[in-house]
Design a protein that fits this description.
The chain has about 280 residues and is α+β, with helices and mostly antiparallel strands. The protein has five helices and ten strands. Strands 1, 2, 3, 4, 5 and 6 form a six-stranded antiparallel beta sheet that branches. The model is unreliable at about 1-25 (pLDDT under 50).
């Protein structure tokens, strides 16, 4: 049996008891939604396509906080491709994971199988990494690889949409003609970069709304495409209704119009389906 590194041994005692386990790939429709992959990708400084070389059982007494119905494994994996990660990672990496047991008390066989892992470095030299979530090892497929790479390209782009923290303020300005007007909603972001939503009402026309990622409202701005990073930032993290504190200072009728316009945005964005529990804070 291979000798466990001291970093990994320390980590064995640090995994939380509410760990979820392992996410397998599907040969048909992928059970992992766009938001699932975006949650994992935005929260992981290291993303890699790997093949499991060794899956070594950890004795239960060395994993007292492993979730019930799981077996903890020490994984030795070969790096096939680095999808995200400054400075790279070694050809051989090591991490631990809790795998769910079936009704016969057996864990899935993962040796020699390919996966995508989402992780952070524990050691820059010896290849020890820590999964960024308990289920941050997912089965590799060409389709998943392509989807994750597409998300990562958006995350690292110069003009990447920032993570939304809250709604800062909102107001509605009526136009000179009844039924016309403009609602502006200013969002607070984790990085403090500006993001705003504008909803325009014109007589005889369908309302239109757009998102701007700069201090100045961009006339070429549009509503986000579903299953894009900007859509994810809004659909998955905006509240379902406009907070009252965001409307401070607006009159009753204007505030009501701002609420209606915000509801239109939420309706157009649609829901944010997930198939895994997000252990995620906006980043």
């Amino acid at each position: 049996m291979q000798k466990l590194s001291m970093t990994i041994i320390t980590l064995l005692w640090a995994i939380t008891a509410d760990s979820l386990a392992f996410s397998q790939s599907s040969t048909a429709a992928d059970p992992l939604q766009y938001a699932d992959l975006a949650d994992l990708s935005t929260g992981a400084p290291i993303i890699a396509h790997v093949t499991v070389k060794e899956a070594i059982k950890v004795d239960p007494e060395r994993a007292p906080n492993a979730p019930p119905g799981t077996q903890r494994y020490y994984i030795v994996a070969t790096t096939n491709a680095l999808i995200r990660g400054q400075g790279g990672i070694p050809e051989t990496i090591r991490y631990i994971i809790d795998l769910p047991l079936n009704e016969r008390g057996k864990a899935p066989k993962i040796k020699k199988k390919p996966f995508i892992i989402f992780a952070r470095n524990l050691s820059a030299t010896n290849g020890d990494v820590q999964l960024s979530a308990p289920d941050a090892q997912i089965g590799w497929t060409p389709a998943r690889d392509q989807r994750v790479r597409s998300i990562v390209r958006e995350i690292v782009a110069r003009n990447a949409p920032p993570a939304i923290a809250s709604i800062g303020s909102a107001f509605h300005v009526p136009g000179t003609i009844i039924g016309e007007g403009e609602t502006q909603i200013f969002l607070e972001t984790v990085s403090r970069d500006p993001v705003s939503i504008t909803i325009l009402s014109r007589e005889g026309q369908k309302k239109v709304w757009a998102v701007s990622l700069s201090e100045i409202v961009d006339e070429a701005a549009r509503a986000p495409v579903r299953n894009s990073l900007l859509w994810y930032r809004l659909a998955c993290f905006l509240p379902q209704s406009l907070p009252e504190e965001a409307l401070t200072g607006d009159s009753g009728s204007n505030a009501n119009q701002a609420r209606r316009d915000y509801n239109l945005v939420i309706q157009d964005l649609g829901n944010c389906p997930r198939s895994r529990r997000p252990e995620y804070r906006p980043r």
